[in-house]
Design brief:
Number of domains: 2
Number of strands: 5
Distance between the termini: 53 Å
Number of helices: 8
Strand order of the largest sheet: 1-2-3-4-5
Strand content: 5-15%
Largest sheet: 5 strands, mixed
Structural class: alpha+beta
Length: 233
Amino acid sequence: MKIHSKNFGKKEKVLNYANQTYQLSRPNKVGAVMALIRECQPETIEEWEKWYFETAHTKGKNPAKITRDTLVELGERLYVITEIVIPEWEEAFNQLTLQDCIDYIYNLTINRTFDGFYREKSVVTGTLEKKFLDVEFVQSEPQLDHAGDVDYLGYVGDKAFGIQIKPVTAKANFGNYSPSERMKASFREFERKYGGKVSVIFSVDDEIKNIEVLEEIEKEIVRLKKLQEGAMD
């Protein structure tokens, strides 16, 4: 298979970092590209390119048609961002010490793992278990296929829904969050196996920030109960 992707060499790390940090390739900027290409099923890159510019729209409340100029504008924005990011990196590199590197690995392995573990537990025990008394919440088993994407299972009889808990900062904007295609596939596999959908909870410390997710979970519990009642009839 011929590879069409361009190799940016050492520049790619900077471009990836700036692009991901400022979310310039999210569906609200360039459309749901994986969904589009699967709909197109192109045999050549020319076919895909033509389909994309004829079909693609930004995702969101006010979808806009995507043109070549749209991508050029995003590239120009990325360039402006790199002019900010590169000096920040240079300053960080110049100040970096051996002790910083040792402390970083230790902090990542011990401190952040501990904080993340208890953040997840506090969301479940502090909120979910108190609100949904008839649901049994169980931590996902590490060896299961979905373990990386589902932190807890909420059992409703012999069926279960999934919970993914994502830590965010107090000022984070998660309104345009969209799971990756791999994660969506993992969620679909979870639903096939357990019967329930996966809900994503955004937490600041031990508090749920997207509080509307509780209503989503409640509806899923009702749905699973009805499924089981129907199976018993």
